[in-house]
Amino acid sequence: MDLTELYQSVILENNRRPRNYRKLPEANRIASGNNPVCGDEITVFVQLDGDRIADISFQGAGCAISQASASVMTQRLKGRTLAEAETLFGRFKEIVTEGKPDDEDLDLSAFAGVHQFPARIKCATLGWHAAINAVHGDSVTASTE
Ligand code: ZN
Questions:
Q1: How far is the CA of 68 from the centre of ligand 1 (A)?
Q2: Ligand 1: centre distance to CA 35 (Å)
Q3: pLDDT one-digit tens code per residue, 23-56
Q4: Closest by Cα among 35, 137, 28, 133 to 89
Q5: Is residue 112 classed as helix, strand or coil in its secondary structure?
Q6: What's residue 131's pLDDT?
Q7: Higher model confidence: residue 139 or residue 21?
Q8: Which domains, from first to last, does the chain contain?
């Protein structure tokens, strides 16, 4: 399996079986994002404990890149501090806008090919933007419904 196939398998697998795809009853931060150009929608649920993301989940619909990226995002941000989350998002944005994969970070680098399709960069970053908006937003008690 070459690296391109490996990257594609990360995206396909996360799209087929998204991780942390559920509502989070304990969530105290919720944010939604949408990408009308592609029709992607993602809602991120965060249980923030001090400045640490104790738990994180998402629900949504849209293209494989948007859903797979949100799935990877939840796996990478769970347990992280806000500063660590911002750093990771910065690295991910570099990967998808410049197409420079980081060999030590396979699941983020899986999205490096997105840089060839500028319209898809919003698909890849949608879940991450929603997560960062959630942790910086006001606390919520109501559900999104
Ligand atoms: Zn999309």
A1: 10
A2: 7
A3: 999 999 999 999 999 999 999 999 999 999 999 9
A4: 133
A5: helix
A6: 97
A7: 21
A8: 3-137 (3.90.1010.10)
